[in-house]
Design the sequence.
């Protein structure tokens, strides 16, 4: 929806304000509780990461053992922060793009509380020793129906709004959001039904878990990120997406390729041999949709280059798009069946890949969306551009450190593992520096997000700056005033 | 709000369509699992099949060699034989348990004929027998108390008049086939 | 593109993968038939049944709850997928005193009794498929002892033994209790940490876990149908 100041701009503005007001409480709830879980997750990540190179740290408590803290970190990152940020952003964007007010704020808020309660119970369950041992599904068995129920109660309304949309045009962002909303229950129920409610072959169960992990990233988080970027880039720059064909290609190639990916984690396991290699091939091919969308959005952003230094939303979105490109390269580099798969299969590069997807791509774009959305629903502007800058730069440093550290370190670790004549002790030594880098990187990320939490909390409490001019990042300290036009504020 | 695009009916329909779409694959999966109702068999069960075959074979062979019906039919006769061949009481003064009521009684009446109602064959009846024997000093003619006999009424046991050094008396009632 | 076509397209693209990669393999592998052994090829009859002795189900649960799968794998990959089989003590024992080279890759029957195979996510620590075998070989080399004792000591303090001084395995001290010595000292007590009046003794969870770990022996001779070792080794392995 390119911002053209048309004759109906005042009724549009009223409509948009109405939409924003109807969604204010649910969206702020999801964003703030998501941010709180992000804080928890990063603290747990630091604790877990310290234990990888300094295992004597708080080693006498069952609650703080690595085997429980690390799954707690991942699950809170995914279900506590990831999903709630996605909910907040999806709800607002779908409502805006469908030009429909939200009528179910109460239901959504209740469901949001249920979601938080479930995540809390699940996290306590993991730390208390009731984890299931299935990566990314470690919450105790009773949690998944609660999450599913809340999800349906939160997201159904957005789909209904889409169906009754007032706008005849369907935007690329809406394809991605709608697809993500539909894919998640398909993937979630399949995995949980098969793993928790039916008996099957144990190795196949591990395979389905690996498929679930990949599907959660590439059929929910990445599409939400892409959809959000496809919304923010044209919206903030005022330029249309350069190639609609490319956008279609990107979307449908993701839909076709992504459901096959994931089982490469079980290469060499006693399951039908085509499964892991199909998964590896699909993950490599995923570079196509990822790169296509990234390039399309990148071209949108740089077509209006003077906006770039000033809009926080655009900064974060561009960083997220770089993350997407990096993810595409990593997807190829890590999963080549003849060469790199055997090295990276059991190395920390898998973790690096996950964090690149969840933080380097998804979270950055979500931050961009947050910086865009919150002023609109609270009718206040962000207080300080330096807080935003600190958040941005330190997050960027942190994610680059983790991504490169873990991806590169994973290759080193994998090569050491494959050197079968070496005693195992040398391999533990190889990982240590990369684990230290990861700890340091997570500390930087925590530091960056402190600014984000403070800023968001102040906006939530109504301490935002009143005014019509949005807060811009004046990184280039030139004398020219930040040229704002009316459409920029919308 | 154009009523042709947005009205409660369309919203209602859209709500349910959304729900069905979300749960479509879940329902398909549940249907598939419901149709293919096979609990996975474990290796233990598979290994057990061979054991059951062997067990059946052995049971058949045993039954063929040794019929259960025959055994059941023979039990009453054997029981009767066994109970009728109840050994006579052996009276050996050196077998009397020191300190028992019988011993005390014997010590009290050294002159009378030692009649011991102790039947080594019925130790479980020794206590009730010894008790009435203790109170009735006259022994001899009373046969042992009926409750000590086996369920099937045997012929009256030989009267323990004298200590008959018979040893273990087994009265082979001839002619019966012994399994 | 209408909404209906969109949903149909999504369903078709997802559904095909869902069937081919998830549902059909799951249902087929549920009913994995055991491999029958024949006298000619395997030297014995029956089925291939790599039985493990120990608290497998309970131990697997504790293994999962404490996150052991995060740093240890239980997958010995065939040589086209990794070099695990070349290591001397992962797929079995390269120099078993009775059987010679017992190493083999993991097969589909090796996780019998567990609901979810703890294949593992990374290898910070060594693969555990044949941990029981390694521990027994270690105590045999020392002239006798209890393999469980080695594991109890490792769980309590992984960095105590000189061989694992640099290990980053967490200390699972919370699985042990210090209790008063009443009468005789417990045979399972740890050899260190003993005072005049108290000793360190594994809890029920530790015992179950160690029973599971000692049961990890996956080098039974593979049936001919699953034996992909090169021909000259096949004859030796028989």
Sequence:
């Amino acid at each position: 929806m390119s911002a053209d100041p048309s004759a109906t701009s005042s009724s549009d503005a009223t409509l948009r304000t109405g939409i924003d007001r109807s969604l204010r409480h649910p969206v702020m709830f999801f964003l703030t509780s998501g941010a709180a879980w992000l804080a928890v997750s990063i603290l747990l990540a630091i604790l877990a990461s310290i234990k990888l190179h300094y295992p004597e740290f708080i080693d006498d408590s069952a609650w703080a053992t690595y085997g429980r803290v690390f799954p707690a970190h991942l699950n809170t990152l995914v279900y506590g922060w990831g999903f709630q940020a996605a909910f907040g952003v999806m709800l607002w964007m779908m409502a805006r793009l469908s030009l429909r007010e939200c009528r179910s704020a109460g239901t959504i808020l209740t469901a949001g509380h249920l979601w938080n309660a479930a995540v809390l119970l699940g996290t306590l369950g993991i730390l208390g020793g009731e984890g299931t041992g299935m990566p990314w599904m470690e919450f105790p068995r009773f949690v998944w129906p609660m999450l599913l129920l809340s999800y349906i109660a939160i997201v159904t309304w957005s789909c209904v709004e889409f169906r009754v949309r007032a706008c005849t045009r369907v935007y690329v962002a809406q394809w991605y959001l709608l697809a993500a909303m539909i894919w998640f229950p398909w993937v979630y129920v399949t995995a949980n039904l098969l793993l928790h409610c039916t008996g099957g072959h144990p190795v196949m169960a591990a395979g389905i878990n690996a498929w679930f992990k990949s599907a959660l990233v590439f059929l929910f988080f990445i599409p939400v990120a892409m959809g959000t970027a496809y919304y923010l880039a044209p919206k903030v720059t005022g330029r249309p997406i350069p190639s609609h064909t490319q956008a279609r290609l990107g979307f449908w190639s993701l839909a076709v390729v992504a459901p096959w990916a994931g089982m490469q984690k079980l290469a060499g396991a006693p399951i039908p041999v085509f499964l892991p290699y199909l998964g590896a091939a699909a993950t490599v091919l995923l570079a196509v949709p990822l790169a296509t969308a990234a390039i399309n959005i990148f071209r949108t952003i740089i077509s209006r280059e003077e906006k770039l230094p000033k809009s926080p939303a655009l900064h974060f979105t561009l960083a997220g798009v770089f993350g997407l490109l990096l993810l595409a390269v990593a997807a190829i580099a890590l999963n080549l069946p003849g060469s790199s798969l055997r090295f990276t299969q059991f190395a920390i590069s898998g973790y690096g890949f996950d964090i690149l997807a969840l933080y380097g791509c998804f979270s950055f774009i979500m931050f961009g969306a947050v910086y865009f959305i919150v002023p609109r629903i609270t009718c206040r502007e962000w207080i300080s551009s330096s807080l935003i800058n600190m958040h941005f730069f330190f997050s960027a440093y942190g994610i680059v450190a983790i991504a490169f550290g873990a991806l590169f370190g994973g290759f080193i670790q994998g090569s050491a593992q494959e050197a079968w004549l070496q005693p195992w002790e040398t391999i533990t030594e190889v990982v240590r520096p990369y684990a230290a880098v990861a700890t340091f990187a997570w500390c930087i990320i925590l530091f960056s997000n402190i600014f984000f939490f403070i800023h968001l909390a102040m906006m939530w409490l109504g301490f935002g700056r009143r005014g019509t001019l949005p807060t811009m990042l004046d990184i280039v300290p030139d004398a020219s005033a930040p040229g704002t036009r009316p459409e920029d504020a919308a | 709000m154009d009523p042709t695009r947005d009205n409660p009916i369309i919203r209602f329909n859209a709500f349910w369509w959304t729900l069905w779409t979300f749960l479509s694959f879940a329902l398909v999966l549940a249907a598939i699992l419901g149709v293919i109702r096979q609990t996975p068999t474990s290796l233990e069960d598979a290994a057990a099949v061979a054991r059951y075959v062997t067990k059946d074979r052995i049971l058949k062979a045993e039954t063929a060699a040794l019929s259960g019906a025959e055994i059941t039919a023979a039990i009453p006769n054997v029981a009767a034989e066994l109970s009728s061949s109840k050994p006579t009481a052996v009276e050996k003064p050196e077998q009397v348990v020191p300190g028992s009521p019988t011993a005390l009684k014997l010590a009290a009446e050294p002159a009378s004929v030692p009649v011991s109602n102790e039947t080594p064959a019925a130790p479980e009846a020794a206590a009730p027998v010894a008790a009435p024997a203790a109170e009735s000093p006259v022994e001899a003619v009373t046969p042992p108390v009926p409750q000590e006999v086996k369920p099937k009424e045997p012929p009256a046991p030989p009267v323990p008049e004298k200590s008959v050094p018979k040893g273990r008396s087994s009265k082979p009632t001839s002619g019966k086939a012994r399994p | 593109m209408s909404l209906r076509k969109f949903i149909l397209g999504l369903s078709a693209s997802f559904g095909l993968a869902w069937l081919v990669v998830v549902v059909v393999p799951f249902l087929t592998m549920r009913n994995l038939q055991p491999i029958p052994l024949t006298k000619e090829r395997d030297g014995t009859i029956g089925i291939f049944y790599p039985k493990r002795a120990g608290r497998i189900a309970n131990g697997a649960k504790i293994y999962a709850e404490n996150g052991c799968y995060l740093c240890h794998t239980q997958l010995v990959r065939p040589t086209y997928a990794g070099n695990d089989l070349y290591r001397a003590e992962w797929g079995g024992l390269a120099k078993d005193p009775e059987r010679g080279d017992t190493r083999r890759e993991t097969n589909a029957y090796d996780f019998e009794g567990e609901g979810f195979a703890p294949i593992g996510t990374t290898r910070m620590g060594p693969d555990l498929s044949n941990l029981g075998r390694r521990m027994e070989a270690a105590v045999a080399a020392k002239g006798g002892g209890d393999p469980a004792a080695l594991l109890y000591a490792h769980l309590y303090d992984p960095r105590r033994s000189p061989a694992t001084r640099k290990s980053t395995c967490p200390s699972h001290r919370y699985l042990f209790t210090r209790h008063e010595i009443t009468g005789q000292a417990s045979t399972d007590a740890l050899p260190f940490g003993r005072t005049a009046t108290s000793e360190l003794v594994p809890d029920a969870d530790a015992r179950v876990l160690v029973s599971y770990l000692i049961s990890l022996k996956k080098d039974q001779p593979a049936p001919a149908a699953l034996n992909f070792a090169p021909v000259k080794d096949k004859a030796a392995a028989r």
